[in-house]
Amino acid sequence: MITDRQNGSLYTNITGKIATLEFGHPASNSFVAELLDRLTAELNHLSKNDAISVIILKSEGDRAFCAGASFNELMAVSNLEEGKIFFSGFANVINAMRTCKKVIVGRVQGKTVGGGVGLAAACDYVYASVDASIRLSELTIGIAPLVIAPAVERKIGTAAISELSLAPSEWRNAYWAQEKGLFSKVFDSMKELDKDLEFFVEKLASYNPQALEEWKKVLWQNTDHWNQLLIDRAAITGTLVLSEFTRNALSKFKK
């Protein structure tokens, strides 16, 4: 079931050493600024919780995983500062996932666009459905995937992110994403996926939490500069979203 709250929803359920973090929004689980801020805060909170070892990140419903940034909020950006603040929301979420002391396992059940691809890339391990096609559509509206690019490129490499981003109207299927390294496992049905996911996270949560924390630091080494890099990229994107090209493109999409 998808929430009807226009500011989105965010729920955390903790069972044993596993925290399940579920976000939702009526517009294909897209992100408004408030929801991005809440997700960042919750990730930072869970990072400090010594009682848990693993976080499952998932979205509501059985269709789209995440449609990226809210079109309505993109349309509402009226100056550089507003643009920087909005895109900094994605920067903050990715940095919170990067620095989180817990291993984050993504559950991607459907199509994923733009910022949603960045979210999947910032997970440490990703379970995906065969229906989880991906697309970086930013160029079609006059911006570029600048903020999420470091996370996506870290997972799939420069060649694959070039292929994905420079064909912004084309979908890549879940097996393409698995082959490139974005998805860890792909399943034909959600029943199979959830059964395997449950087994996997329970096994993961049984390991030494200190070992998991130290190993995650190694997996994310050489990314400390992202704190500034992603905010700088957010400022550039905020400039692009004010361009005439983007204003016109967003108006057409809205219609």
Describe the structure.
By secondary structure, this protein is an alpha/beta fold. α1 (33-47) links the parallel β2 (18-24) and β3 (54-59). 49% of the residues lie in helices and 15% in strands. The mean pLDDT is 95. α1 packs parallel to α3 (80-99), α3 (80-99) runs antiparallel to α9 and α4 packs across α5. The chain has a single domain, classed as 2-enoyl-CoA Hydratase, Chain A, domain 1 (Alpha-Beta Complex), CATH 3.90.226.10.
Brief rundown of the structure:
The chain is an alpha/beta fold and 255 residues long.
**Second-tier CATH architecture:** Alpha-Beta Complex
Could you give a short account of the major beta sheet? 6 strands, mixed
- Please identify which CATH superfamily we are dealing with: 2-enoyl-CoA Hydratase, Chain A, domain 1
What is the share of helical residues?
A: 40-55%
CATH class: Alpha Beta
- Structural class call reads alpha/beta
Oligomer: single chain
**CATH topology, what is it called?**
2-enoyl-CoA Hydratase, Chain A, domain 1
Number of helices: 10
Strand segment count? 8
User: Could you spell the SSE succession in H and E letters?
Assistant: EEHEHHEEHEEHHEHHHH
Total domain count = 1
Using brief descriptors, characterize the structure shown.
alpha/beta, 2-enoyl-CoA Hydratase, Chain A, domain 1, 6-stranded mixed β-sheet, two-stranded parallel ribbon, 10 helices, 15% strand
